[in-house]
Specification:
- By secondary structure, this protein is an alpha/beta fold.
- The chain has 2 domains: 188 residues, Class I glutamine amidotransferase (GATase) domain (Rossmann fold, 3-Layer(aba) Sandwich); 138 residues, Arc Repressor Mutant, subunit A, CATH 1.10.10.
- Helix content is 42%, strand content 11%.
- The chain is built from 14 helices and 10 strands.
- β3 and β4 form a beta hairpin.
- It is globular and about 65 Å long.
């Protein structure tokens, strides 16, 4: 049963309306709303005193998450002016209608009266379809970036941050980003101490410098090749990025794109100047370097995570690509002298390394 505050309670300082899209991501929703719950009351009583949340939907039946767990609404759509912000939690995309036209109309009405709108995970797709993201940048997970670019080619998109604030719009990459974005929202309305209390109870404390945007753990390579217009190349790169710990055969990648392996080889050679297998190894090494700088896994664990057969094999290819061994990169990071290394090696380096760098695994 939902707790109903009595008249003696103060008016909440943060009032949040929540819209769940069909097949929404349960983890993103729960991380967000649990931060609100813990920030709303002292101790762990969960009373909506400091902030209040209302799950709304145009239909009375529960909305099913992508893991098939249903969530019931609290109410039909209420006057948007009753809320400080309205949040859309998205999830699965392909071949599915996320929300109905009534929901899109409601979001447009909320925007027209100046209510802040938030898109979590693919909720940003819903906001964009409602046409309430004009002249604003959107934060999208690298996993869904290409889908977003193809559907909204005129909109500015970033995929290197956990969330992005652009005036009265906040967009969030999803996953753990929902927690970071919730903390930002709570801090803005209820103060830093309240926000820290919520993250502390959830064991999600992490050091972060103020005014420094939290970054997604793995920056996508697609930013480095944004000049490429061939959709097959872009789809191939995205598929590679999504399968790095167990690299898929190039023949299977070609089948996925509906072309032959020979055609795929020609496309990559013409567009990027290298074979698909060479490029695949390059992005896996970039991923490895990102994990080395995070410092959470051992070199051996990173070698396995990026699909190399053994640590020695991984270290040899890594040093040939970046001019430093994995251990040297980690040591430099610990000493605070990692500096700025380009995410794509210069062409001269790749030419100097030669074909031995790209021998088959």
């Amino acid at each position: 049963m939902r707790f109903k505050p009595d008249s003696s309670m103060p008016t909440p300082r943060l009032r949040v309306g929540i819209i769940l899209a069909g097949n929404f991501t349960l983890s993103a929703f729960s991380l967000f709303v649990d931060h609100l719950r813990l920030a709303a009351d002292k101790d762990d009583n969960s009373r909506p005193i400091l902030c209040q949340w209302t799950i709304m939907n145009s239909r009375s039946e529960p909305v099913r998450s992508s893991c098939d767990i249903p969530i019931s609404r609290h109410s039909d759509f209420r006057n948007p002016a009753e809320f400080d912000c309205i949040v859309v939690v998205g999830g699965l995309l392909h071949g599915r209608r996320q929300v109905d036209d009534t929901t899109l109309d409601y979001l447009r009405r909320a925007a027209s009266v100046g209510v802040s709108l938030i898109g979590i995970c693919t909720g940003v797709f819903v906001l964009s379809r409602a046409k309430v993201m004009q002249d604003r940048a959107s934060c999208v997970s690298w996993y869904h970036r290409q889908d977003f670019v193809e559907e909204f080619p005129e909109q500015e998109v970033v995929s290197d941050r956990m969330y992005l604030v652009d005036r009265d719009r906040i967009t969030c990459s999803g996953g753990g980003g929902a927690a970071d974005m919730a903390l930002h929202l709570i801090e803005q309305y209820l103060g830093r101490q309240v926000a820290k209390k919520a993250s502390h109870v959830l064991l999600l404390d992490r050091p972060a410098k103020s005014n420094t945007p939290l970054l997604q753990p793995y920056p996508p390579l697609i930013d480095e090749i944004n000049h490429i217009t061939d959709s097959r190349i872009r789809r191939a790169v995205l598929e590679m990025e999504q399968n790095m710990n167990e690299p898929i055969p190039i023949s299977r990648l070609a089948l996925y794109l509906g072309i032959s392996s020979r055609q795929l080889e020609r496309l990559f050679h013409t567009t990027l100047g290298m074979k698909p297998s060479d490029f695949y190894r390059l992005i896996r090494l970039r991923y490895a370097r990102s994990m080395l700088q995070q410092g959470e896994l051992s070199v051996t664990e990173i070698a396995v995570e990026t699909g190399f057969s053994d640590c020695a094999h991984f270290s040899r290819h890594f040093k040939a690509m970046f001019g430093q061994s994995p251990s040297e990169v980690r040591a430099a990071k610990r000493q605070g002298r990692d500096g700025d290394m380009p995410v794509m090696p210069h062409r001269s380096l790749m030419e100097r390394v030669g074909v031995r760098l790209f021998e088959e695994l």
